[in-house]
Design a protein that fits this description.
3-stranded antiparallel beta sheet; NusG-like N-terminal domain-containing protein; 13 strands; 2 domains; globular; 5-stranded antiparallel beta sheet; 4 helices; transcription; NGN_dom_sf; about 20% helix; about 180 residues; NGN-like_dom; alpha+beta; single chain
Length: about 180
């Protein structure tokens, strides 16, 4: 029991689900941000028509996915109160919530924020032939990052794949002059 309480006291990145409709006026991530919690939601741009006018708006890549950096003891009462907010649970465990290591999450957030237009992929979308050469980035906003390039035929841009293991992969554009092949 002591180990369990120790985990609840630490601030961690919890993987959560928001079961509200995609067009809800106040999705869970906005509600949690209003409570001064650190929340990350992978966003993408899309064109929508409002009153006959086409505008570009930023929407969640996956409407039900959000990451919350908080203590479990603080999150539990909120999850109980908001019926559409849930933890994502690890498979083959009894109610153990999914978490992401702080280092992995910070690396992912930094890479996505440094890129103008990141492309997101769910685990089943990337095939082995899409993984290109191993590289290390030297210089620029992504200095020190290493990984594999996204191999896409006919693409003018070099994209580095940064992932949250078993959850989400982002391909972010990298300036070719900063790339060193390993």
């Amino acid at each position: 029991m002591t180990a369990l309480l120790g985990n609840e006291e630490n601030i961690r990145w919890y993987v959560m689900r928001d079961l509200k409709r995609a067009n809800a006026k106040e999705p869970a991530y906005k509600l949690l941000e209003g409570m001064k919690m650190e929340v990350f939601v992978p966003m993408k741009w899309r064109l929508v028509t409002h009153g006959g006018v086409r505008i570009r708006e930023e929407v969640p890549f996956m409407p039900d996915l959000l990451f919350v950096h908080e203590r479990r003891i603080t999150l539990d009462p909120i999850v109980e109160k908001i019926r559409t907010l849930q933890y994502r649970w690890l498979c083959r465990t009894w109610r153990e919530p999914m978490t992401v290591a702080d280092g992995d999450m910070e690396r992912f957030i930094h890479a996505v924020n440094a890129a103008e237009n990141p492309k997101y992929y769910q685990p089943g979308e990337l095939t082995p032939d899409m993984y290109g050469r191993s590289v290390r980035i030297v210089g620029g906003a992504m200095d020190g990052y290493s990984g594999k390039l996204l191999s896409a035929r006919g693409s003018k841009f070099k994209r580095l794949m940064v992932e949250i293991p078993n959850l989400l992969t982002a391909a972010v554009e990298v300036n070719p002059e900063f790339i060193i092949f390993i």
